[in-house]
Amino acid sequence: DSAKDAGRLAACWAQYTSQEKMVKVAAKHGVELTFFHGKGGTVGRGGNPALYRAILSHPPNTINGRFRVTEQGEMITQNFGNPAIAERTLDIYTAAVLREAFVEHIEPKEEWREQMQRVSDVSCAGYRQLVREEPRFVPYFRQATPELELGSLNIGSRPAKRNPKGGIESLRAIPWTFAWTQTRLHLSAWLGVGDGLSSDDEKDVKELQTMYADWPWFRETIDLIAMILSKTDFSITKNYDDKLVDKTPELIGLGDEVRAKLVKTRQAILDVSQSKSVAGPHVQLLRASTKIRNPYVDPINVVQAEILKELRGMGEDETLSAEELEVKNLRRDAMIVSINAIAQGMRNSG
Q: Of 44, 67, 114, 140, most Cβ neighbours within 10 A?
């Protein structure tokens, strides 16, 4: 929810500093502190495929041999659905929590904190400018993604919105992230990051590069965003725009602007990590898995965009004949199948 409100980087930094403050208060009053982490499948909901490194990169003195976590959604089956995989998952948790006690944690320097606060403020402003202040955004979001259809399909344990009549702010974090995953844009995971990491001052860029090299928490945060960026797909995303978005200069132009932000974010990640591939340390694994999965997932995306177009072109249920209603229900079933297939294909982004 915090990432949906302020963007990925601002949310991560707010959680980092909040944990530090709670550790100090607990120590002052002699309280043994255990943080309870919610871990979903998506990066936007706390997911991280590099679980071992993620635990080791937590803020200093926030684990101390105690780590409580709730696995959510599709990750329950993925990590615990098979006895052998469940044992392996628990092995990783146990090894990381034990190892963390012997790791020499890096305390961020004061200049790193100041730089991170600048990055947080700028990225949050960039995120909110598009999501909250741009009047074209909500119509674009609802047309270019299956967000409206997700709300009407019986695929979740809770309603998609806290307030059915509300806007983006009332949307739950899961459908917000899920909708962007389906179109392969993954906007919720990277929007604002390019603004925060970019700077006209060469000193800022050099300091960010130093932070990436020497500060495990910052490096893990950047690498995770880089991994999601490597899963974005321009042609798939644009096909959704071409099929579903009203052919007005305003909405079509916004789609182009969003993809330009994606280009900026990719370049900013490469500049900070000084890497040749946006996938960073995940590059070899992603290259292998993508080569296998994309030939299957790409056509499903194309089919889903077509199904959305056809469904939206049909009237309300009560205005349809029996035959038309049967066709519509078949398309709804196909829609559910496509949603599940894409989510499985994206794995930790679905």
A: 44
